[in-house]
């Protein structure tokens, strides 16, 4: 199984993000990783800080209603992913001025190599397709979101 498929299989999915900005989404999604057992409770703050530091250095909010917040941290031993969907979207100062609807959050261990960038490239290609993005936003459960991302 390739890295992309492995990441999707392990991903935590939130079908109804409540946050109203990217930093709220980072907090909400990090909390979801803890709740799902994918991130130790004791590592919550350090994980959030790693992602926020990265976000402050260069925004990961993109065009096409997507954001890819991520951060390198040794609190995870392997790539850890949370996929969040905001049906209403939230303002995130996207380059195209559109609200953000789909957020892919990644925690990246320092030892991660090409698998991390390959995952980001593959997920970006999928999310740039307007029909697939709409299908993800409309999905009502984890499997619906993952089915679209798997293609």
Explained architecture:
- There is one protein chain.
- The protein is 45% helix and 19% strand.
- It is an alpha/beta fold and 151 residues long.
- The protein has six helices and five strands.
- Strands 1, 2, 3, 4 and 5 form a five-stranded mixed β-sheet that branches.
- The chain has helices spanning 3-10, 22-35, 44-57, 114-127, 130-138, 142-150, and strands at 12-14, 66-67, 70-72, 80-90, 100-108.
- The radius of gyration is 14 Å and the shape is globular.
- The chain has a single domain, classed as Mannitol-specific EII, Chain A (3-Layer(aba) Sandwich).
- The model has no long low-confidence stretch (mean pLDDT 92).
Count of the domains: 1
In DSSP terms (H or I, runs of 4 or more residues), the helix count works out at: 6
**Can you give the mean pLDDT?**
92
Q: The biggest beta sheet, please?
A: 5 strands, mixed
Q: Please give the share of residues in helix.
A: 40-55%
* CATH homologous superfamily classification: Mannitol-specific EII, Chain A
**Strand-and-helix sequence, N→C?**
HEHHEEEEHHH
């Amino acid at each position: 199984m390739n890295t992309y498929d492995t990441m999707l299989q392990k991903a935590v999915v939130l079908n109804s993000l409540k946050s109203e900005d990217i930093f709220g989404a980072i907090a909400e999604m990090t909390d979801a990783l803890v709740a799902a057992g994918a991130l130790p409770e004791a590592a919550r703050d350090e994980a959030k800080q790693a992602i926020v530091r990265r976000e402050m250095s260069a925004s990961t909010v993109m065009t096409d209603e997507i954001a890819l917040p991520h951060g390198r941290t040794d609190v995870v031993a392997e790539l850890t992913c949370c996929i969040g969907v905001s049906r209403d979207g939230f303002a995130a100062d996207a380059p195209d001025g559109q609200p953000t609807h789909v957020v892919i959050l990644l925690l990246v261990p320092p030892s991660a190599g090409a698998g991390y960038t390959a995952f980001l490239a593959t997920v970006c290609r999928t999310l740039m397709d307007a029909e697939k993005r709409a299908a993800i936003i409309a999905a009502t459960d984890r499997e619906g979101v993952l089915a679209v991302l798997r293609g």
